[in-house]
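Human: Can I borrow your eye for a moment on a structure tokenisation matter? Separate attempts, laid side by side, tell us more than any discussion would. Could you pick a protein and write out its sequence and tokenised fold? No explanation is needed for now; the record alone will do.

Assistant:
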Amino acid sequence: MALSGLDIYKLLPKTNCKECGFPTCLAFAMQLAAKKTTLDKCVKVSDEGKQALEGASQPPIKLVTIGAGDNKIELGNETVLFRHEETFYHPSGVGFLLEDTLSDEDFKNRIKQIDQLSFQRVGQTINVNFIALKNSSKDGSAFSSKAKALAENTKLNAILISETAPALAKALEVLKDRRPLIHAATGQNYEEFAKLAKQFNVPLIVLGNSLDELAELTQKIKALGVEELVLDTGKKDLLSKLTDLVNIRRLALKKTFRPMGYPIITFTDCDDPFQESLYATTYIAKYAGIVIMKNSPAWAVLPVLTSRQDIYTDPQKPVQVEPKVYEIGNVTDKSPVLVTTNFSITYYTVEGEVESSKIPTYIIACDCEGMSVLTAWAAEKFTPEKIAETLKTCGITEKVPNKNIIIPGYVAVMSGKLEEDSGWKVVVGPKEASGLPSFLKSLSSS
């Protein structure tokens, strides 16, 4: 049972020393009860109090690490149901299912295809994280052989799926340095699988068809000494799976029900890549820690990765580009100069239109704290004074002697003041970025 703020307060030193960063011990206790701080912030809590509060100080969803080194992925440790309440911290892992019955050539080709699923979006690289290897052959030797091929041909993290512990043990021997995730402990084999997880120090998936079954299994496995677990509620239709995902998240966060306090894995089971993309995106939106897909055409995977990127971008911290002068194409001292904000979506939209125009152009990304043009203008972050100061300090005056600058059409009202403050001639550009190609072409021909 979760402790209330008052229960926690009774176990604190009550000195109001403020060393924890809160004005009173009661304020700290309330934040600890809400999982918005950790017990280690209190430097004066007694050993007895620390022991009693250990459960209250643990995150509601266990942090699970899969993989090793730079490629490791962390899941869990989330604290809210809805992103606007705070933010989501550990993006869902996305991967693809491969079976050990594939020929060696087909297996390597599929790995190569999956490895290439990496895209650039608003200045960030988005890519997949896992290959799930399934022991469909029921043969331990074939399973370990494919695990070896996996290790040799990709750096993606591995999930090993088998019904038998001996087959898993063979594959784990091959991939033990990669710290794979193993699937899955059930009511019939959990002791064997827990032993393997401890022996190889790897996280373990727990499979149960109901939440009651899962809760019972996680407690039994934790008692055997395995801490890093991932939950799987089995093969279900979309509505039933979503119900499980939401209920598990609510039990972990709202009820602090520890047996449900783990990341969740889901598998899509659609032959149609379009439908599978929709299912995967839905699972990510509703708390899946890992989504494993069957089909991997780039057109179907990109929207899944894009949705994940959007969901796990902190809404309070817009994605920004570095404020500076960007050179698009083979610019010269006669190239046009555009100014915009440093909000990533705004900048990359402008950059894409400039590139399509084939007109070499300078783009100045003004530091507007990651706001779009109209938002920054309304917030007085994109002003004539700010742009004039940027022109003086960004180095553009050494590159372009003609001192002509193009501003977005939506802020044409600032043109007179900007000319006065900067000494540059201001040209009002189109309101929408889509109008830039024709606008730049008309400038170059005049």
The chain has a mean pLDDT of 93.
